[in-house]
Design a protein that fits this description.
The complex is a heterodimer of chains A (266) and B (286). Chain A is an all-alpha fold and 266 residues long. Helices cover 82% and strands 0% of the residues of chain A. In chain B, helix 1 packs across helix 13, helix 7 runs antiparallel to helix 10 and helix 12 runs antiparallel to helix 13. The chains are: A mainly alpha (266), B mainly alpha (286).
Chain lengths: 266, 286
């Protein structure tokens, strides 16, 4: 049984990573084909570094993701604290249902609905071009918010409410009690919510596609390039992203495993 | 507690809940403007013509797209079923591994999620297209080339590839919570491997199945990129239609109508699905 399991998982992983392998291999291709490997070269990596459009898109993607993460994390954490303290059950259920909508709704519907909103408001205000960085930021914050709220809320439910009350009995104001007692105990939820917001924002294509106007992020650049034939340069860009993600995750996991191993020793 | 103390505590609670309500205002305003209002605007566009007058004309065109809608649901359904069949044993084997191995496996499952869907799809296209890697390989062996791209099968393959991790994650998280003593109890009471699976493991993993199926089905049915790249002109899903209609001002209202229809069908599906698994936290959907 154990062997069957290993073999099965091996086959699935091999199939799963095949397209990624193709991407990595062909990023080193000498010619501009993405289907026939002619020889090893670093030509496309050089090309990538010299491509101002790609570098600009990378910068745009990171700026947008950083802004989105800050706003979504702040707004989402405050919202989670608010929802947690709500006494009316129906109100709580209502707010949580609305929170679920962006996660349940197909991305294309979210994108279209936001685009129509911006077009509608833009037309009312008489603006010719209503889309741009601002609208994209709003859209990204909107679809990242639920993930922050739903990461922080369970942590709040786990904290002991008496701790904050005890802090207040010992003379701290409610605000102090929040920052000194509640916030440290929910920080892991806030961090994982922020991380999720950051990655979702970097990766998003569909909603950006409808709300971007002229602001080009990496997924939008890739989309425009895949309308024609893609050169291995795009593969080189993606290989770099893939490698940084892989290394980051490996480091995080190994340090986690080490930590738990140390704990067990003690 | 004395009556007085109770009253003070109740007053504190009240004060707290007023403060909490204030904390919620920014989020509620945001959700109102950017989640609720846009949905109404889609509905508004769907029920009006270019001059803003009320009309049902858009919905009369729904019949034209009946086949595309049906195809979308059939392809997404097939992709979801295959993904579930592949992911279920996978998740089961994962939970049988050591904890440290489990962590690494789950990390490897997540990595493709960080890759852009576009580039993953494009890479699949490179593998299966007419002059692609498989066909080049077949030709090298002196075999005949296969027509794989621009078929519904290719689109379904793309969906499975892109959304497989979304099925594995909830399945593993549910299955790893199944108490081993339950299985031991079942075998003590005389059940064999098959009935242990059917009567213990399967029922307990239903919540994971439900959320996995939702997370695969919804993006599959509404995709437009996968069908564009892997289906070519032979596959036109509802996402493709919305995408082509919404970008032109003249057909924008019909596109909005289709988006509204898609949204309603999916939200109804999710509501029905959630009947199968009762979730205590998280509120209801819709």
């Amino acid at each position: 049984m154990k062997h069957i399991g290993r073999i099965y998982m091996g086959i699935i992983f091999a199939l799963m990573y095949l397209p990624l392998l193709v991407m990595v291999v062909f990023s080193f291709n000498e010619s501009n084909s993405t289907a026939k490997f002619t020889g090893f070269s670093l030509y496309w990596y050089e090309e990538m570094l010299n491509d101002t459009a790609a570098m600009e898109a990378l910068k745009n993607t990171l700026v947008l993701a950083a802004c989105t993460t800050v706003i979504a994390t702040l707004l989402g954490t405050v919202a989670a604290v608010g929802i947690y303290n709500m006494r009316h059950k129906w109100l709580r259920t209502g707010v949580l249902s609305v929170t679920n909508i962006p996660m349940m709704n197909p991305e294309i519907v979210m994108g279209v609905s936001l685009m129509l909103l911006f077009a509608f408001v833009g037309r009312m205000m008489g603006a010719v071009e209503s889309l741009g960085f601002g609208t994209m930021l709003i859209s990204h914050v909107t679809f990242c918010l639920p993930y922050v709220v739903l990461n922080v809320l369970p942590k709040l439910n786990q904290t002991d409410p008496h701790l904050a009350e005890a802090a207040q009995d010992l003379g701290s104001t409610p605000v102090q009690a929040f920052f000194k007692v509640v916030l440290p105990s929910i920080s892991s939820g806030i961090v994982s919510g922020a991380l999720m917001a950051f990655t979702l924002s970097i990766d998003d294509f569909v909603i950006s596609h409808y709300t971007s106007g002229g602001y080009t992020t990496l997924p939008l650049l890739i989309y425009n390039m895949t309308k024609k034939r893609v050169t291995p340069e795009m593969y080189a860009v993606c290989t770099c992203i893939f490698m940084s993600v892989l290394i980051l995750l490996l480091v995080m996991n190994i340090s986690q495993i080490r930590q738990s191993a140390n704990k067990n020793k003690k | 507690m004395t009556d007085k103390a109770k009253r003070i505590s109740a007053n504190k609670r009240k004060g707290k809940s007023v403060g909490a309500a204030l904390l919620n205002i920014p989020y509620m305003v945001w959700a109102m403007i950017f989640i609720i209002v846009p949905m109404f605007i889609v509905a508004f566009y769907a029920f009006t013509d270019a001059d803003g007058a009320f009309t049902l004309e858009n919905f009369k065109q729904l019949g034209e797209y009946r086949d595309n809608i049906a195809d979308s649901f059939i392809y997404a359904f097939i992709a979801t079923v295959i993904t579930l069949l592949l992911a279920y044993p996978f998740a089961y084997f994962v939970t049988k591994c050591k904890e440290s191995t489990q962590k690494i496996i789950m990390m490897l499952v997540m990595v493709p999620l960080w890759m852009n869907l576009l580039i993953l799809t494009y890479s699949i296209m490179n593998i299966i297209e007419a002059n692609g890697i498989i066909n080049n390989f077949l030709q090298m062996l002196g075999l005949e080339r296969l027509q794989m791209i621009n078929t519904p099968g290719a689109v379904i393959l793309g969906m499975i590839y892109n959304y497989f991790p979304y099925m594995v994650l909830p399945l593993v998280s549910v299955m790893s919570k199944i108490d081993n003593s339950l299985l031991e109890a079942a075998s003590d009471l005389g059940s064999n491997a098959v009935s242990r699976f059917v009567r213990v493991i399967l029922p307990l993993s239903v919540p994971g199945i439900v959320s996995g199926v939702t997370m695969v089905f919804v993006p599959s049915v509404s995709t437009f990129y996968i069908s564009q790249k892997l289906g070519g002109s032979s596959v036109n899903m509802i996402g493709d239609i919305i995408e082509s209609l919404i970008n032109k001002v003249a057909t924008r209202h019909v596109g909005a109508m289709l988006a509204l229809v898609l949204m309603v069908i999916i939200l109804v599906c999710i509501m029905l699905m959630n009947r199968f698994s009762d979730d205590d936290e998280g509120g209801m959907i819709v």
